[in-house]
Design a protein that fits this description.
The structure is a single chain. This protein is 40% helix and 27% strand. The radius of gyration is 22 Å and the shape is elongated. The longest helix is centred in the last third of the chain and has 14 residues. It has one domain. The chain has a 4-stranded antiparallel beta sheet with strand order 2-1-3-4, covered by helices on one side. The termini are far apart. By secondary structure, it is α+β, with helices and mostly antiparallel strands.
């Protein structure tokens, strides 16, 4: 049997362990990526009688890819260039 334990820390309100034997690794990653699971203390993978701390691996899988500033601003740079060209046009 394999399942995941996700420990969520609510601060002063306490902690909650989410344990669902039918939840797959993909579902855990999806819930972390979507923000459903926040303030995670740890994520353990239980397989038979062994416990593995997979917190860092799951968080790395759930992380959104980093987008460089140059890629994100391409459209605004193009608009700025067009605006600059219009400023320098002769009427």
């Amino acid at each position: 049997m394999q399942y995941f334990v996700v420990m969520i820390d609510y601060g002063r309100r306490g902690r909650e362990a989410v344990v669902d034997p039918e939840m797959t690794r993909r579902e855990v990653v999806s819930r972390v990526a979507s923000g459903e699971y926040k303030n995670i203390s740890f994520i353990h993978e239980i397989v038979d009688s062994s416990v593995d701390d997979v917190t860092e691996k799951i968080l790395a899988e759930a992380a959104l890819p980093a987008i460089g500033a140059s890629e994100a601003d391409l459209q605004s740079i193009r608009f700025d260039h067009i605006r600059d060209l219009r400023k320098h046009e002769t009427a």
